[in-house]
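new request in #modeling-help
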Amino acid sequence: MPVEIRMPALSPTMESGTLAKWNVKEGDEITSGDIIAEIETDKATMEFEAVDEGKIGKILISEGAEDVPVGELIAWLLEEGEDASAIDSAAAPAVAAPVNNDVAQPVAAAPAEVPAVLTPAADEALPEGTTFANITVREALRDAMAEEMRTDENVFVMGEEVAEYEGAYKVTQGLLAEFGDRRVIDTPITEHGFAGLGVGAAMAGLKPVVEFMTFNFAMQAIDQIINSAAKTLYMSGGQIKAPIVFRGPNGAASRVGAQHSQNYASWYAHVPGLIVLSPYSASDAKGLLKSAIRNPNPVIFLENELLYGEKFDVPEVEDYTVPIGKAKVVREGTDVTLVSYSIAVGFALKAAEELAAQGISAEVIDLRTIRPLDIDTVIASVQKTNRIVCVEEGWPTCSVSSEISACLMERAFDYLDAPVTRVTNVDVPMPYAANLEKLALVKVDDVVKAAKAVCYVD
Amino acid sequence: MARQTASNSSSSRKAKASTSSALPKLPRAKALKATGEELLEYYREMLLMRRFEEKAGQMYGMGLIGGFCHLYIGQEAVVCGIQAALKKGDQVITSYRDHAHMLACGIDPKPVMAELTGRATGISKGKGGSMHMFSTEHSFYGGHGIVGAQVPLGAGLAFANKYNGTDNVSVVYFGDGAANQGQIYEAFNMASLWALPVIFVVENNQYAMGTSVKRSSSEVELFRRGESFRIPGEAVDGMNVLAVKEAADRAVAWCREGKGPILLEMKTYRYRGHSMSDPAKYRSKEEVQKMRADHDPIDQVKQRLLDGKDATEDELKAIDKEVKAIVAEAATFAQESPEPDPAELYTEVLTAY
Ligand SMILES: Cc1ncc(C[n+]2csc(CCOP(=O)(O)OP(=O)(O)O)c2C)c(N)n1
Ligand SMILES: [Mg+2]
C-alpha cells in the first residue's frame, strides 16, 4: 500500500503553511529521517523529515504552494516493489484526512473569529486623514522596540534566543541585523540571573527590555522583579530608579500543559512599584510598548502567543504611543458592561455580537493597563449599564476580575442592578487533553450566558 | 609585621588546602565490553525508542499530538546505558524530553503514547501531556517543563534515600542549556555537602534550542561544573552505549557506597529540531548528517553485533519487525482510546484527606 505524506503541523498553533521547497522529486528513494521538504509559516522555515522509507511516487502539491492546510495530502510514497499504479488504487477509496480537527486546533482558532475594529478613545484622537497599516501584533511589538532603540541609545533587548534565532516566537525579528549584538543580546537560560542583571543595568541608567520566552519562566526571576525592581525606588528614598521592561507571552497557548499555561496579570498587579500592561490589539501593543520603554519605572508587559499572528489596523503616524493607565471602550453599549484584557477582549467582543443578535446591547472595555487600573472608565460604564461581567483568561481566585469587583463594591455599589460576575478559566491547573483544555478555558458562550443572567433574561 | 603573618598563614592554609583538596575522582574506566545478549538488549531498546519517537513525530504532524513535543532521536544511548546500570528502586527524573526515559524505565509504550494523544488511558490520564509524564511504579518522577527545575527535585529524591537508609541512587538528567540555571548549583552544593546518592547527568546534545554550548557557557567542559562543589565529573561518549554503561556502573557504585554525588557529562546529539517547531537555522545539515552517519548509537551496536557474530542480519531484521509492531500497537491504542471524562478536569487538584 502506498503511504500518504500529508502536510504536517510543525507547531502547536500552525493551521496552514507554504510548501516552500521539495528536496526530492518523483522517483527518488528516501529513508526515514531524510529531509524531503521545507515548509514555511509566518514564524519560521522548517524542515520536513520522512518517517517511512520508500520511493516518492507522486507529488501532489507543487513547490511554492501557499496556505496548504495541515493534514492535506501532499505526496504519495511507494513501498518496496510498488509502482505508481498502486497510488490510484490507494487513492480510490476516498481517503479522508485523518486529522481530527477538534484535536488539532483547539483554542488557536478562536481569536481569528474576533472582530478587529476598535474605535480609538477620545484622548487618542488621531489626526484627520491618518492611514492605517494592517499588521500583526508580532510586527507591532517589534516595530515598537525598533523605534525606541533608534531614538534612545540606552535601550537594549536581552533574553533567550532573542538575537540570532530572532525570538522563540519571532517577536525580535530583524533587531539583531539592525542594532547589532551590543544591543540585542542572547542570554543563557538563566532567568533569575539575567532579570537581576537587567535591573542592575537599569539602576545604572540603561533601559533594558528583557524578554522572557514566556512568562511561565519569569517565575524563576520573580524575586528580582519584585524585591529588586519594584521596591528599590521606595527603599532608596527615590534615589534609585529601575526603568526596565519585562515582556513576553503570558496566559494559555495551545495544549502546552500546566507548567506552560498561566496568566500572571494578577500576580504582578498585586505589587506596588510595578506597572502592568496587557494589550489586546496590535495598535495598543505598539503604542503601549513604546510608552513602557520610555517610562522610568519597572513595567511588566504581558503579551499573548495566540494573538501574535492576529492582524489589526495600526495608525501610520510618527511616534504612535498609547497612554499607560487608560482603559478603552472598544464597543459601546447600554445594557451590560463586559470588562476584559488581553486575548479575552476578543471573547468579549464576540459575545457582544451574539448578545446584539439577541437584543442585548453590551459595552466592551479593554483595560489595557492592569496596574494602575483605570477603574473610572469601568465605573462610568457601569453608571450607564448598571450591570457588569468581568471576562478573564486566567484563574478566578484573587484575579483581576476579583479586584474590579472589589473596587465596584466600594465605589459603584449604588449603580449596580445585579451582582458583579466573573467569567474566567476553571480553577484548576491547565490540563493537556484537548477536551479538558477546552473545558478549562474561558468561553464566549459562558460570557453570553453570564451577561444574560445579569440582565435577568434567559 | 601583621601583614607578614597574615600572608604567611594564608599561604600555609592554601598549601594545606591544595594537598587535601585534590578533587575526589571516580575509579578509572575499564575496558568496554558486553555480552552478545546485552548488546541485543541494547539494540532492541534503542530501536524501540527511535521508532517510538519517529511515530510520535508522525502523529504530531497529523495533529494527533498537540502542544510541545520534544523528540529524543540520536540520544538513545544515554538513557539506555544508564538504565542498564540501575536497580529496582533507583529513581529517575528528567526534563520535558522524556519519552525515551520512560521506555528505558520499562514502562509500557501504550500509556506513554496515549498520554501524547491526551487520552484517558495515558499514563497521566491525559492531564500531563508529552512534557509531564510520571510513574511511581517505575520510580520515574517526570517529566518537567521548567528548565533546570528537576535538578533540585532529583537531589531531594536522593535525600530521601539517604534519610530512609536505602542504598538506592537517584539519576537526574538535564540539558547543556539547563546547566546554566542557578538552582542546579544550589543543588550541587547541598548534594555534595550532605553526600547525597545522586548522579547528575548532563545530556550535552550541544544545543539549547538554537544556542550552542559555546554561545551560552563560559566553561564548556560541563563535567567540570561540579568542581567547586567537590563533585567529581567525567565526560563520556554518549553516542556509545557501552561507554555510557561503563561510566554509569562506576558512578552507581560510588553513590551506593555513600561517597556522595557524581556528575557525568554525556556528549550526545539530537538529530531532530528542539521541538517539532524548530527553524533549524543554527546548525548545518552537514553537521547533522555527519553525526548520523558516523556516530549513530544504534548503528554502532548493530555493527558490533554483526562483527562479533552475535547476531545475523536476519535476526536483527526480526527485531526491527517486532519493535515496529509494538510501536504500531501503541499508536493504535493511543488513537482509539477515549478522551478523559470531563469530570477529570476537577479531580486531583489537591489530595483527598
Ligand atoms: C526556565 C525555563 N526557561 C526557558 C524555557 C524554554 N525552553 C525549553 S527547552 C529550552 C532549551 C533547553 O536546552 P537544554 O537544556 O540543552 O536541553 P535540550 O532541549 O537540548 O534537551 C528552553 C530555553 C523553559 N522551559 N524553562
Ligand atoms: Mg541541549
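bot summary: Chain B has one domain: 31-333.
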